[in-house]
Design goal:
Elements: E1 26-28, E2 43-44, E3 50-51, E4 59-61, E5 75-80, E6 86-90, H1 103-113, E7 119-121, H2 124-127, E8 144-146, H3 147-156, H4 160-171, H5 174-187, H6 209-219, H7 225-229, E9 233-238, E10 241-247, H8 252-255, E11 259-267, E12 271-280, E13 283-292, H9 297-310, E14 311-317, E15 322-328, E16 331-337, E17 341-346, E18 351-357, E19 370-378, E20 381-393, H10 405-425
Parallel strand pairs: 1-4
Antiparallel strand pairs: 2-3, 5-6, 5-13, 7-8, 9-10, 11-12, 12-13, 14-17, 15-16, 16-20, 18-19, 19-20
């Protein structure tokens, strides 16, 4: 059963500073500070009625440090959003149920196969889909609503009925949409991911922290996705129905300076889960937290802090930087970096380039040809690679001219004879 805890309202955008007030929302563990909490989102309780918003009003993170924090979740990963380099990982390849984080793939498929203005006619199946608590928009059979409006309901309020309506609109049926999800997972290289529904209610689908980080990076390349997941609240409109306000359930958007997304989820098997993104200066990170025993936001914020405090974004190599010469078939070839590359590296570390020549390259290569790669390493690990390109090729040596041909021939015979003599008498 899905419980509505892993999704909160807020305005995000690849790490947007969502401050409901000027108060700092991150405090060291053990410290107490009163801050304005995320807007209340009543949660239905067994037997009727509702409870106040279950989301935290403060994040008790460790003090700033260049050392990885202690994480309580079952699995987690911290990744540079731009390069995809993992900065921290704990059980990152372990398959786990992911609850409503499933909807990231649903949104990705919908946004790459439809336009926001397409009209969805809600089927009886979508209108009567089994939902729990407030994870539903309350769609009615025959309701006409645009794709863009359903996407807000899907990603902000985690509406399960919106997921089914979108799946049917894109693929004709939920089963075909799930097949599409799994084909896409294979295409994107999500080798340890299987989906069983468009909303994650089933809990029989699974993924890993690493796969979800990769999926999130791909989703951020889709126009409009960043704006969608960085929206704090939205009035969903459809024909003949009063506007329904949905809130983003990601508490990081209020409590973590620079938070911008992305999605939360909870079921009993999955535990508390969150995919979070944040930006600080020119650094952008994505954090996946799966299977937290309590709220997952503090673990996510602690990892974000580590990403910003423990790493610096630097220009590792500039396009055209000379890297000396390499030997190709015994001849010197001048080479340089073919691209510029920025990446997050351990704060204070040294970046070293290592030229790796393609062993199949033959002389003479052409100017501008890629003949290998430059591996960039920091603190003992590879952080990036760039193409190795030819800048110049040394001209062949001029032919020797040691006199007339008959004299050069006689000299060759004499040298050969001398070698034989040395062979016999040496």
């Amino acid at each position: 059963m899905t419980r509505p805890l892993a999704d909160r309202p807020s305005r995000i955008l690849i790490v947007v500073v969502l401050a409901v007030s000027a108060a700092v929302a991150i405090v060291p563990r053990g410290a107490a500070q009163t801050v304005e909490p995320p807007p209340p989102t009543p949660v239905p309780v067994p037997g009727g009625g509702t409870s106040p918003s279950p989301f935290p009003s403060v994040l008790r993170t460790p003090p700033p440090s260049t050392e990885p924090p202690e994480i309580h979740a079952g699995a987690a990963i911290l990744m540079d959003l731009e390069s995809g380099r993992a900065l921290y990982a704990s059980n990152a390849n372990e398959r786990r149920p992911i609850a409503s984080l499933t909807k990231i793939m649903t949104a990705y498929l919908v946004m790459t196969r439809t336009s926001p203005d397409e009209v969805v006619i809600v089927s009886e199946t979508a209108a009567t889909v089994t939902t729990v608590g407030i994870s539903s928009l309350g769609l009615g059979t025959g309701e006409r609503i645009r794709v863009g409006e359903l996407l807000y309901a899907l990603m902000l309020q985690s509406a399960n009925d919106a997921a089914v309506a979108l799946a049917e609109h894109v693929a004709g049926s939920v089963d075909e949409f799930v097949s599409m999800m799994n084909r896409t997972a294979v295409r994107l290289g999500l080798a340890r991911t299987v989906f069983a529904s468009p909303n994650g209610l089933d809990d029989s689908g699974y993924s890993t922290a690493r796969d979800l980080a990769r999926l999130t990076r791909v989703a951020y390349e889709v126009p409009g996705f960043e704006e969608l997941v960085s929206t704090s609240a939205h009035a969903v409109r459809s024909r003949g129905v009063e506007p329904r306000v949905v809130q983003n359930r990601n508490a990081l958007l209020w409590l973590y300076p620079g938070a911008t997304g992305v999605k939360t989820g909870f079921t009993t098997p999955a535990g508390f889960c969150v995919v979070g993104t944040a930006v600080r200066g020119d650094e952008q990170v994505v954090v996946i937290v799966l299977g937290a025993p309590g709220e997952a936001f503090t673990d996510a914020a602690s990892l974000m802090n580590f990403g910003f405090d423990g790493f610096d974004r630097r220009l590792l190599v500039a396009e055209g930087r000379s890297l000396g010469t390499v030997d190709v078939d015994g001849r010197a070839v001048s080479v340089a970096a073919g691209e510029s590359r920025h990446a997050l590296v351990v704060a204070g570390s040294t970046v070293r380039p290592e030229v790796v020549l393609d062993p199949t390259v033959r002389f003479p290569p052409g100017r501008g040809d890629q003949i290998g790669v430059v591996r960039l390493t920091s603190s003992g690990s590879e952080v990036a690679t760039v193409p190795l390109v030819v800048v110049d090729v040394a001209p062949p040596p001029p032919p020797r001219n040691d006199g007339p041909w008959w004299l050069r021939g006689a000299g060759s015979i004499a040298r050969a004879g001398g070698s034989l003599v040395r062979g016999f008498f040496g």
